[in-house]
Write a structure and sequence with these properties.
alpha+beta; Creatine Kinase, Chain A, domain 2; seven-stranded antiparallel beta sheet; 18 helices; about 45% helix
Amino acid sequence: MSNQLTRRLALLDDDAHRGLLGQGLRGIERETLRIDPQGQLARTPHPVQLGSALTNPQITTDYAEALLEFITPAEHDIGLALHRLDAIHRFAYSKLGDEMLWSSSMPGELPAEEDIEIGWYGKSNIGMLKHVYRRGLALRYGKAMQCIAGIHYNYSLPEQLWQLILASEGIPEERRNALRDFQSESYIATIRNFRRYSWLLMYLFGASPALTKSFLRGRQHSLETLSDDTLYLPYATSLRMSDLGYQNDAQSGLRPHENSLESYVTSLMDAVNRPYAPYAQLGTKKDGEWIQLSTNVLQIENEYYSTIRPKRVIRTGERPVQALCNRGVQYIEVRCLDVDPFEPIGIAIETGRFLDAFLLFCTLEESPMISAAEGQVHARNFARTVKEGRRPDLTLTRDGEEVLLSTWADELLERIRPLARLLDEEHNESGVHEASLAQQKAKVADPEKTPSARVLAEVRKLGSASAFGLQQSRLHAAYFRESPLMPAEEAEFSEMAAASLAEQAIVEQTDTGSFDDFVAAYNTSTLCGNHS
């Protein structure tokens, strides 16, 4: 254990401070495709009873019109966030008719590209901006990519905890912006440690070792054939997070520097403002219709597809990078988790408990700067794990040497144990975080216990990735339909949906100026002002 981790653990283990750990916030975003009873992509518009995809804070769509996104409010306990996620699912099922929610990250059989509808957010300028951005994504990456679903885990620690650590490490808080800068750089340090160790999450929670042939649209690949409609890799954990996912040549050279918030923001803004010749040849309009927001490497900063992001809640009309520049990092968003097809809501409580311990470890442990060469090593460790994480003799690179994944995973879990213990003490629950750690150790000891191995066994049994997805979707649909929400909860969601529709109508009625002017203003609002 490093000196820094020992010091910080002792600080938080003090009775006077332990309660701070319970004041951080957790939130979940779960993406899921709407499908028809046969498992085909739903071709219907976003159900109006679910409210406005533009303005409903808890039920929206991601890229495709059929790709729902459920967003929980941030809670102090992941158990409460997952309870809310369950309720959102039940409400959605009460409005879906005979449609269901797809149970896996990778889609089943997909229709032709032209038959996959892009998310629609109404006729307001901001709604059209969201829609045209997705048109650009379709142009750049293809529409099949817009049907991939994941779980995003939003995580923060309370400001008082940063104040406490800041004071204990002898940094005078009266220095202007000292706390905000310390908090931001601490989250950036967390992200660096995440880069070092996130291969472990892919081994433990990856759940997409196989996919349906139609997803690849005839692209070159190195996958093996499992059946007429299914491709796979025998030791893969997450093909979703492999080079088959959201990747293209324009983004391949883009590696935002995560050695400081400033360098991260600068490299993203460069990509948003740097022209890319193949996109320039396409232009922003075709036959007078907008087809992408810009011809630069990224249309907007969110297009950068990262496994983790520093975030801050944005104000109306503000860009994510401006919020980070002006007010610092508020939380981090972990984006590499596959949907767990064995869980109706896509994520197990034990996964959440382990993530809390893992992210706390990444936050409190020393986190040296990462050189470009080290960054390549971390990326390679991650890539090896997603494609062959369960291979018995698989090694990863650590400090210039090859080490067995299983050996390193065991050592890492032992380093995380004191943090799980600390969370349990604060939590007043009988060892839930340590129990989750034990579950993860069992997966390291026996790869057959990993979600990816369990998925592959089911897919082999059924002979098809699509058949497995449909089987799980039907099981989960029955689970939610058998126990609907209480009337009061149902009413709360219905009111939220109605309010969001009213809000969208107001946005559309009060819009001023042309869409062209709106895009121009948006594209020039990329520069960060002075720290306010």
